[in-house]
Every structure is written in structure tokens, then in C-alpha cells.
Amino acid sequence: QKTQKIMVTTIDHAMPDDHYLDSYLSEILPALGLDAETYAPYVTGYANENDDDDDSDSLDELIELLRASSESHDEDDAAWENFRKEIIQRRDDYLTGENLRKELHALEIQATTHAHLQKEIKLAEKNALEVEAKKQMELESSKVENMSADKIALMSKYGYEDGNDDAEKGHDGGESEKLMTNRDVAAATSLQNAQKQRSAPKQTKQEARQETKKAKADKMAKKEERKKKAGKRERQR
Predict the structure, then answer these.
(1) Neighbours of 62 (CB within 10 A)
(2) Single pTM value for the model
(3) What's the confidence (pLDDT) of residue 26?
């Protein structure tokens, strides 16, 4: 019954793909009087089920099964002991390699994550510096000593309100002048243009009619002059 349990379990877990024991089993099983195609799945099934622990009892039971099925080496103790040691050693080597591969893979993921994080940090720092530089530039441009003469003139004329609102309280309780923003300058410019238009002399309807009449008279005079010149040239011919 125990032998049947091993056979069923190993057959159920036999893997169709190449196994790390396939090459060895294809040579050693025929040498031990066993058909490799028939009995190799038993050994690989055992190896797959016992990757994480050293189940000596299961391996011994498997060897007993193979030994009983051998046509030539069922009494050769040394041969089966060597087979047992070889299976254990190859399995240990495989597990060591797999553990190393997994560790290297984890390190690669960690390195990639770290590189991505560093890239994000540098980008964030760059953006922060650009924002700070822009703020500093705007602050400097709002200072009187850095303004153009036209902007200073506009600020002097429209930048402050009359009365007690001309100044704001500073941090020390004193009065500090209010800086004029670009929006304030634009508004002041529009106001200045509007005032110029309002203050410009307005033309009355009577003056407009007189100008139109005068323009027509000038046009007629020029036309008559051209006719006289044309008639004079005709007479000269």
C-alpha cells in the first residue's frame, strides 16, 4: 500500500517540461536495470514534492520501489546508495541555485525601484527650484529700482490711493509702501489712455460740416484748375 501511494503521487506530479534531474536519470536508470521513460517521473515527482525539506523516509521508500523493479541491480546495495547520494546532492545544488537566482532577482527589483525613486526625487527638487526662482524673479521685478521709467511713472501717478489707505502697516508697526503689481500697472495704463481720450478736444457737428464743405470746395477748385490747364494746352497746339 505504501508503495502504491508513492507511485500515484509521483505520477500525478510528473512535469512535462525539462527537469534538472532528467539528464542524469536518462543515464543512471538504464544502468540500474530500469526503463528511464517509465521510472524517471517517479524520481522527478519526489524531487518536486520535497524541494523545501529533506524527507529521507520518502526517498528511501522511492529507492525501495525502484530497486524492487530493477531487472539487474536489485541486490546491489552500493549502487543504490550512490544513487541516493547523487539525488540528494543534485537536489541541494538546484535549490541553492534557485535561492541565489531569487535573491538576485529581488536585488534587481530593489535597484530598479531605487533608481526610479531617485529620478522622481531629482525631478521634484528641480521643479521646486524652478518655482522658487520664478517667485524670486517676480519679487525682484516688483522692486522700484528694477522697474522701467514708464512703470515708475505710472506707479507714481496711479499706484496709491489718497487718504489713510496710502500705506499699509509694516511688521514693526510702521508704515510701508504697497508694491505695485503688474495687474495694477495694466489698470493704470488703461486709465491713463481713457483720461487722454476724455481730455482731447471734441469736434462739434458744425465744425465737422465746415471741414467737409471746405474739403469739397478744395476738390472742385483743383478740378477747375486741371480743366484750365488742359484747355490752354489745346490752344497752344
Answers:
(1) 25
(2) 0.41
(3) 92
